[in-house]
Amino acid sequence: MESGDLRVFLAVANEGSITKAAAKLNYVQSNVTSRIQQLETDLQTVLFHRHNRGMTLTSSGKSLLEYANKILGLLEEASKAVTSSTEPRGTLAIGSTQTCAAVRLPKLLANYHRSYPEVEITLTTDYGESMADRILRYELDGAFLSGPVEHDELVSVPAFEEELVMVSEASMADLTEAANKPVLVFAGRCYYRTVMDKWLKENTWKKPLLMEFGTLEAIMGGVAAGLGISLLSRAVAAKKVEEGLLRIHELPASERLMRTNFVMRKNAFVSRPLQLLLDELKKTQTLLV
Fold first, then answer.
1. What is the pTM of this model?
2. Cα-Cα-Cα-Cα dihedral of 184, 188, 194, 198, to 10°?
3. Which of 25, 30, 49, 126 sits a CA distance of 20 to 30 A from 201?
4. Neighbours of 132 (CB within 10 A)
C-alpha cells in the first residue's frame, strides 16, 4: 500500500464516484478503478459498496479512511517540516465562519499578504462542526470558529471578541412584535444557533418557527424585509443599521459577548506561514476582555 494508492482511495471516498475522482485527480477512469481494485486485493477486503448512484464506503473502508487522512496529513506535515525556511512561502489553508470572514479577516489577511506575498492563502467558509472535521482530516491548517470547541485533538487560540445583538426590521420597536414571526438561522449547527436556542428558551418564546438560510447576506436580507428576527454580530449588522434597514435590540450584558478562536490540531507541525499567522493573532489578544 503506497501513498499514491491512499490518495486515489481518498478521492473516491470523498467524491463517491470513480468518474468524479478521476476528474479531480486528472487520471483516466480505468487507472482509478484498477488502483482501487488492487488496494482491495492487497488488504483482502471490500472497501466500497458499488451501486447505481456511485460508491459508498463499507465498514472496512470507513476504518481505512480515518488512517488515510492521518497518513497523508503527516506526509504533508513532513514535507513542510523539511522545506520550511526563514523566508515564508508555501500554502496556508484556513477556514472560518461566514461572520468572521466578512468582518474580521479581510484586514488581517490583507496585512498578512502584504508582509508575506509568497505564501498562498486559501480561505474556506463553513459551519463549525464541518470545519473541525476538516482540521482533523488535515485538510485545513486551522479555522476561525465561534465559541468553545471541545475535542481532545484540537487546541484553541483566542482571536477576536464579538458583541451579539438581536436584529429585526427597522420599524420594529420591540421584539415582542416578532412573536409570530420566524427566527432566521444558519442551516447546520453553529455557535450562533446555540446561543439563539438558549435565548429563545429563556425568553419563553412559544414554539418558534426556525427558518434556515445558507448565507449571512440572505439572513440580513430576510430580516430587513420583515420576514423575521435573527442573532448577529453587532459589527455585521452595523452597516444595515446605518442604512435604516435593520434595528438592533440589546442582549443582557451576561450574554452579549462571544469569543472567536483560531482552532488547530494539537501537536501538529507549525509551518513558518502558520506561525506568522499565530504571531499576528497574539497581537489581537491584548484587545480581548
1. 0.68
2. 50
3. 126
4. 21
